[in-house]
């Protein structure tokens, strides 16, 4: 099971990729 911090980092990375595509 993953820690909340790991999940948060994964979410931020995914959001960053989406933002780059949006640009």
Task: Explain how this protein is built.
The structure is a single chain. By secondary structure, this protein is mainly α. The radius of gyration is 10 Å and the shape is rod-shaped. The chain starts with a helix and ends with a helix. The relative contact order is 0.15. The longest helix has 19 residues, at about 5-20. It has one helix at about 5-20. It has 1 helix and no strands.
What's the SSE blueprint?
Elements: H1 4-22
As a percent range, the share of helical residues equals over 70%
Tell me the structural class.
mainly alpha
Q: Shape from CA axes?
A: rod-shaped
Evaluate the radius of gyration: 10 Å
How would you sum up the major sheet? none
| Number of DSSP-assigned strands | 0
Order of helices and strands: H
Distance N terminus to C terminus?
Answer: 34 Å
Roughly what fraction of the amino acids lie in strands? under 5%
Uncertain spans: none
Counted by DSSP, the helix tally is: 1
Quote the average pLDDT: 93
Overview features:
23 residues; mainly alpha; 1 helix; rod-shaped
Overview in brief:
This protein is mainly α. 83% of the residues lie in helices and 0% in strands.
């Amino acid at each position: 099971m993953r820690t909340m911090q790991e999940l948060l980092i994964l979410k931020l990375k995914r959001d960053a990729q989406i933002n780059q595509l949006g640009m």
